[in-house]
Amino acid sequence: MSKPTGVVVFVSAMVVAGAVAAEGMLVEAAANKVIRKYQTASCDELRAQKSEPPSAKEKIALDLLRDDPKARIAFVNQVAAPVLNKMFECGMIP
C-alpha cells in the first residue's frame, strides 16, 4: 500500500471511529435524560407524560434506536433497571 493510500485509509478509519463515538455519546446522553426524568418525576407526572406525544428530539432519538440495534441495546441496558423500578413503584406495571 502506498503512503497516500495509507493516509486515506487511516483518515477514513478515524472518521468512522469518531462517528461511532459520537453516536455512543448521544445514546448515553439520551439514556441519562430518561433516567433523570423517571428519578425526579412523581408517579402522577409520569402517568400524565405517558399520554403526551413525543417531542421532535424524542422522535429523532426513537428513529435512531429503531434503526440501530447496537444503540438500542446500549440504551436499554442503561435505562431498564431505573425506569422499570420507578414504574413498579408507581403501579404502572401490574
Structure described in brief:
Keywords: Signal. This protein has a domain at 27-89.
Describe this entry's structure for a reader.
This protein is mostly helical and 94 residues long. The protein has a domain at 27-89. Helices cover 84% and strands 0% of the residues. It has 4 helices and no strands. It has helices at residues 3-40, 43-50, 56-67, 69-89. Helix 1 (3-40) runs parallel beside helix 4 (69-89) and helix 3 packs across helix 4. The radius of gyration is 19 Å and the shape is globular. The relative contact order is 0.13. This is Haemophore haem-binding domain-containing protein. Residues 1-21 form the signal peptide. Keywords: Signal.
Distance between the termini: 62 Å
Q: Strand pairing plus helix content: what structural class?
A: mainly alpha
Which term fits the overall shape?
Answer: globular
Count of beta strands: 0
**How much of the polypeptide forms β-strand, as a percent range?**
under 5%
| Number of distinct helices | 4
Major sheet description: none
**Radius of gyration, taken over Cα atoms and rounded to an integer in Å:** 19 Å
What pattern of helices and strands is seen along the backbone? HHHH
Stretches with pLDDT under 50, minimum 5 residues: 5-19
Mean pLDDT: 80
The proportion of residues forming helix, as a percent range, comes to: over 70%
Oligomer: single chain
